[in-house]
């Protein structure tokens, strides 16, 4: 059994398919000592090297894994940083084969849910605009927000990289100069949530991603910690990505699949009823306040 090189390397976790295709064009990948070409068929028995380093892969036996990581403010979503800031990859469990691939990015000052997987093909599906997967954020706004501004944000705002809008904006409480909202959109452009609000002359003082598709950030999960999706959660995510569900082998006990074993598993509160399925369900009177472990009032 064989498959295209870029799909094979993505599936076993060396990057997204698009990223690996770029590496092939750049001549960074060799197969049996020969520069690879797009569309080359492999079965895993070949000597595959990236930047001269042989990669160790198991042809078709690797178990697909996904982590729901709570990215704190101050970590970057990259493997290396010229400024030597901490990265999200430093606290993840080690993989015997492949590596963790981030599903999208969160900027330095944004915290919240970041999905990571050892399946680059799944990551590519989840990030691709055609998947139309919802991203939900809790956002604290500094400044007066008027009904006309909210209407404009729903209808669309011209940004430097094209028109953008929120699919939903849900008021979530707050007082004084600060007010909380939950916003939902279906794309992941750079700093899109911040730029949309700033286009209306207000400032984002706090931004937390609380949901990606059917996966919600669990209440009680601390920044810098992670949960590993179980079989039911994985099947929901595969369905959202347009992939067939799979029956995984028996999973290890749940305490070995979390970085904080004794925390409760309730989802992040959302003011929207039924915000997705499975792990995304939840309701509350405002966005979760990590400092107090309950909804902000």
How would you describe this structure to a colleague?
The protein is of the alpha+beta class and 297 residues long. It has two domains: 3-54, Structural Genomics Hypothetical 15.5 Kd Protein In mrcA-pckA Intergenic Region, Chain A; 63-246 and 255-288, Pseudouridine synthase (2-Layer Sandwich). It has six helices and 19 strands. It has helices at 5-11, 17-25, 120-127, 147-155, 192-198, 231-240; strands at residues 3-4, 29-31, 34-35, 41-42, 48-50, 53-54, 66-71, 101-102, 111-117, 135-142, 157-159, 162-164, 168-171, 178-185, 203-212, 215-216, 226-228, 288-289, 294-295. The strands form five sheets. Strands 7, 8, 9, 10, 13, 14, 15, 16 and 17 form a nine-stranded mixed β-sheet that branches. A four-stranded antiparallel β-sheet has the order 3-2-5-6, with no helix packed on it. A two-stranded antiparallel ribbon has the order 1-4. α1 packs across α2. The chain is elongated, with a radius of gyration of 20 Å.
CATH class of the largest domain: Alpha Beta
Helix count, per DSSP?
A: 6
Low-pLDDT parts are 248-256, 273-297
The oligomerization state is: single chain
CATH superfamily of the largest domain: Pseudouridine synthase
Find the structural class using helix and strand composition: alpha+beta
CATH architecture classification name of the largest domain = 2-Layer Sandwich
Instruction: Specify the overall morphology.
Output: elongated
**Radius of gyration over alpha carbons?**
20 Å
The termini sit apart by 57 Å
SSE order, one letter for each helix or strand: EHHEEEEEEEEHEHEEEEHEEEHEE
Tally the beta strands: 19
| Average pLDDT over all residues | 81
Domains counted in the coordinates: how many?
Answer: 2
- Strand content of the residues, in percent? 15-25%
